[in-house]
Amino acid sequence: MRWARQVLLGSLLTLAVAAAHAIGCVTDSNSVVLDSSATLDIQLGGTTQCTGYDEYTVGGRLTLIQPTLNITLTNGFVPAAGESFEILEWGSLTGTFGTVTIPSLSAGLGWDMSALYTIGTITVENTSAGSSDGPLPLWALGALGAGLVSIGSRRLKKTAHREGPARLPTVATVFKG
Fold first, then answer.
1. How far apart are the C-alpha atoms of 28 and 35, rounded to whole Å?
2. CA dist list (Å): 111 to 83, 108, 127, 157
3. Domain boundaries, given as residue ranges, for the chain
4. With CB atoms counted within 10 Å of each terminal CB, which end of the chain scores lower, N or C?
5. Residues 71, 53: Cα–Cα separation, whole Å
6. CA-based diameter of the chain, in Å?
7. Can you give the pLDDT at residue 76?
8. Reading across the β-sheet that carries 84-86, which strands appear in turn?
9. Are the C-beta atoms of residues 32 and 5 closer than 8 Å to each other?
């Protein structure tokens, strides 16, 4: 793991660590501040914490003041859907990364970064059309549209019968993609 860090120990002590490394876990028992000039490099080379991928642990408060998080794949590793990587741990967390660089994945896969600032974990998710979180298939959109037209025409008939001419409701279709 390579990183630049600033450690708060009563007065501000600045350390810069930038060494080529093997995958592993680094623990800092103090509070750490990573500012906008800092870069935290995390390597993913397998699915086992500390031997397959990097993890940075801060025992106290981890303060992120817009540093860069750079995640790379190594050792020919190709992540699969459902694999999670706990790359950060902290006693408490304040702030966010200013830039997050993540590697491209195989077709149909994407990174879920939603737990990065809650539990320090990133996950590979299936983004293909057949997944439960993907867009609706065309047949489902057709069935949805037919149902809305049926409901609209019933309302139109009831409204026209009671109140005279009326307009069909406007239907907007939103595609997630």
1. 16
2. 10, 11, 9, 49
3. 2-126, 135-177
4. C
5. 10
6. 80
7. 95
8. 84-86, 121-126, 109-112
9. yes
